[in-house]
Amino acid sequence: MHTEILLPPNAPTEYKDRATLWNAVERVEKAKNSQLAREIELALPVDLTLLQNQNLVREYVKKHFIVNGMCADIAIHNSKDGNPHAHIMLTMRPFNEDKTWGDKQKKVYIPDKHGNKIYDPVKRQYKCNKIQTTDWNERHKAEEWREAWTDITNRYLEELNLPERIDHRSYKRQGKSQIPTIHLGVSAYQMEKRGIRTELGDINRAIEISNRKLRQIEEQLNELQGWLDEEKANPE
User: Fold this and answer.
1) Which is more confidently placed, 134 or 67?
2) Could you report the per-residue pLDDT of 200-227, keeping only the tens digit for each?
3) In terms of CB atoms within 10 Å, which of 83, 197, 216, 222 comes out highest?
4) The pTM is what?
5) CB neighbours of residue 45 within 10 Å
6) Residues 46-55: contacts with CB under 8 Å, at least 24 apart
7) What angle, 0 to 180 degrees and rounded to 10, lies between the N-to-C axes of helices 199-233 and 185-193?
C-alpha cells in the first residue's frame, strides 16, 4: 500500500533509493555472518485510514530510530484480511559526520597497573575488549520500542475519538487472567470470513468461551470479597 525510506541527517541522500541503500549495506559488512538489518513489524489500527497509519508509522520511526542514526525502509501492507501492518527494516550502523558508515563496535585496550597496553604473545595482539558503539542491541530496547508504539498509537486513537486502545504487555503482566487468542493467518481468516470453520478458528472460539467463564468467575469472586469485607466491617 505504501513504501518510503527515511534517513538521518548524516546519511547520504542517494540512500533514499532502496537498491542503493541495501547494496551499500552489503558492501560495508565484510564478515560472512554479519547482520545486515533489524526488522520490526507493527500491527496497525484497522480504524485508521491509510494516510493516518502512514503518519502514525512515520512519526514513530522518526522519533525512535531516525533520530538515533538509523535508516528506515518502510512498507505498509493491507491484504484486506483485518491485519494491516508495517514492516520496518533498520540499518545496523551509525553514521559518521562525513556521511560514511560508522563502526558497530570499537576496541578498548586493557591497561596494566601503569596504564600501558598489555601485549598477548599467543594471539600476537594487545589485550582488549570490544564494546558496542550504540545500545541498539541491548535487551531493554525491544521493551522500550514496544512501549513507545503503544503510547503513540493510543494517542492517535484518542485524538480521533476512537474507543479502542492497545497494550504491549501480556495479559499476565496486565494482571488479567484472560487467555490470548492465536493469530489466524490470511488463509484461515479468509475461510472463516466465508463461513468455513477452521481448526485455528475453533481454537479461538474455545478460548473466547473460556475467557467468558473466567470473567464470570472473577465477577463472582469480587462479589464474594465485597460481602466478606462488609461482614468484617460490620460484625454482629
Assistant:
1) 67
2) 888 888 888 887 888 788 888 888 888 8
3) 83
4) 0.71
5) 19
6) 46/82, 46/84, 47/157, 47/160, 47/162, 47/164, 48/156, 48/160, 50/1, 50/2, 50/76, 50/78, 52/156, 52/160, 53/84, 53/86, 54/2
7) 90
What pLDDT, on a 0 to 100 scale, did the predictor assign at position 170? 67
Torsion angle defined by CA atoms of residues 145, 65, 88 and 61, in that order, rounded to the nearest 10 degrees:
80
What is the Cα–Cα distance from 149 to 45, expressed in whole angstroms?
A: 12
pLDDT category, 66, cuts 50, 70, 90?
Answer: very high
The per-residue pLDDT for 123 is 79
Domain ranges within the chain, ordered by starting residue: 2-101+139-159, 185-233
Q: Which CATH class is domain 2-101+139-159?
A: alpha beta
78: exposed, middle or buried (Cβ count in 10 Å: 0-12, 13-18, 19+): middle
